[in-house]
Amino acid sequence: MILAMFLAGSSVVTNKVLVESVPVFVASELRFVVATVILVPLLFIYEEVTKVCKKELFILFLQALTGVFLFSVCMLYGLKYTTALEGGIITSTLPAVTAICAFFILREKPSLKVLIGIGVTVIGLACIQTAGVSQVGGGVAPLIGNGLIFFAVISEALFVLLGKVSAKKHSPLVMTTFVSAIGAILFLPFAIYELRLFSFRDLSLLNIGIVVHHGLFVTVVAFILMYQAVKEIPANKAGVLTGVVPLSAALLSFTFLREPFSFGHLVGMVFVLLAICLISYGQERKIEHHSYRG
């Protein structure tokens, strides 16, 4: 789950670079076409493809709509109006939003340890937020950009919860393949419309590399890891681990985009790591205990 969220955080930075020269829907369509081309052969090689009933297909469609379509559109358009660092920081609400949604939708009651983990995560990311507001130069229209990214956070939280539901009946590879293929279909008409003003000849080697990174690592690898994680742990604990996203985004924004990085960012990241260690340690002890009893 941690690696999956780190890869998701990397997309905040790479998307910032990509949307400067590639239309939003074209960029998203290319990402999920690449992912689907990789996943379909893997599905037929490693899985016994079974029929998916209408109800299960509808849940997979909702996952594609929230975690793929709405998340990508809101994130990419949001990054047009705000900085990559602030874009990562806005995801600071993701652990809390996921835990709240898990309580109301899945009836998961968070334990005291999870509540402490959420609190520590929010405190840490609040430190990053304060540092970001005081030092980052701001985007073209940060209010609009940050609002769109917050809506992306809500979409991602719903994506995690829906994945928890689907994981009871399907493998991570099956879910990732269906969600990616549906995502490619959702983006297609909008991408075709944007192609009126864009030519694939305008794609640079850097842009092609980012598209491959998004398709292979941010989608195929990250989705499979995330689905496997939510299958094993409660959604509210998975929500705490999503705190890796802004941590990853902030580190990579500083490293590759040279956006400001301060002591406040460092303090915030320490809090996030403490929360992750707290939750991970508890889960590891639980797994060891079950293994011993078995």
UniProtKB/TrEMBL annotation:
Which ranges carry the EamA domain? 1-128, 144-280
Among the Pfam families in the record, one is: EamA
Keyword Transmembrane helix annotated: yes
Enumerate the UniProt keywords alphabetically.
Cell membrane, Membrane, Transmembrane, Transmembrane helix
Membrane disposition: Multi-pass membrane protein
Where does it localize?
A: Cell membrane
Q: TM segments? A: 24-45, 57-79, 85-105, 112-131, 143-161, 173-193, 205-226, 238-257, 263-281
Task: Give the UniProt entry's GO cellular component terms.
Answer: plasma membrane
Recorded hits in PANTHER family, A to Z, give: INNER MEMBRANE TRANSPORTER, S-ADENOSYLMETHIONINE_S-ADENOSYLHOMOCYSTEINE TRANSPORTER
Family label: Belongs to the EamA transporter family.
What's the protein called, per UniProt? EamA domain-containing protein
The species this protein belongs to is: Halalkalibacter hemicellulosilyticusJCM 9152
